[in-house]
Write a structure and sequence with these properties.
227 residues; 6 helices; rod-shaped
Length: 227
């Protein structure tokens, strides 16, 4: 078929003729006789594909598709590279030290300090209540930012509450840091009563905001499960 450019019926006929000639008389040299190609002989359906070539072609296509899927974004076609996390950790470590020291120092100036966690039960178990400020305020900020900026299917009400509460908690954190450093630079040993009042209310505000946001997120999850 490839040598004489003929279809499958012609090729079979030639093979049968060669076999009959081999039986009838000694083999003689053959030569190709070109014939005008007809519409029936030029049809693609008459040509039997080579299985090896088909398999090789399909494997190449599969390899190409797999490579595109691994490195290309199906929406834009651009290469997708995972975001490295070590820069975030590098930025977070000094920020954590500065924020922690600022909140703990402000807590000491506003009356926070060592307390007995289980008085009358375990008197030796004490904890410095000043650490509740950085843990509560900054942890809630991260939680609210997650709800606000994540791609999870939250309701508009939950996203709106998370947005404004996250911005508010970050703003309170900045105000607290400024207040502590100003008082520390002025060698103040006891914070004024407005600062003490505001800082004393922070744990309650953080608890209420966290509980409200958790309920908003949970209500949305329950509605999706019921639907």
């Amino acid at each position: 078929m490839a040598e004489f450019k003929v279809g499958a019926p012609k090729a079979r006929a030639i093979l049968e003729a060669i076999a009959q000639d081999d039986e009838a008389e000694p083999a003689r040299p053959l030569h190709a006789v070109p014939e005008p190609a007809t519409e029936t002989e030029s049809k693609p359906d008459d040509i039997v594909p080579d299985p090896n070539q088909v398999t090789l072609r399909e494997s190449r296509q599969d390899d190409t598709n797999s490579q595109v899927t691994d490195v290309a974004d199906p929406g834009t076609g651009a290469k997708v590279r995972p975001v490295k996390l070590w820069p975030v950790l590098l930025l977070a470590m000094p920020a954590f030290v500065a924020v922690w020291s600022g909140w703990v120092g402000l807590g000491r100036l506003t009356g926070f300090g060592p307390i007995q966690v289980l008085p009358g039960i375990w008197d030796d178990l004490t904890i410095n209540s000043a650490i509740t400020l950085p843990i509560g305020v900054e942890a809630y900020s991260a939680f609210a930012l997650r709800v606000w900026l994540s791609g999870s299917p939250h309701t508009d009400r939950a996203r709106r509450f998370a947005k404004w509460s996250a911005l508010g908690s970050l703003g309170l954190g900045m105000v607290g840091q400024v207040a502590y450093h100003l008082m520390s630079a002025a060698s103040v040993t006891q914070a004024p009563w407005p600062v003490t009042t505001l800082v004393s209310c922070l744990p309650v505000v953080v608890l209420g905001s966290g509980a409200a946001l958790a309920h908003l997120v949970r209500d949305n999850t329950d509605m999706e499960v019921k639907n």
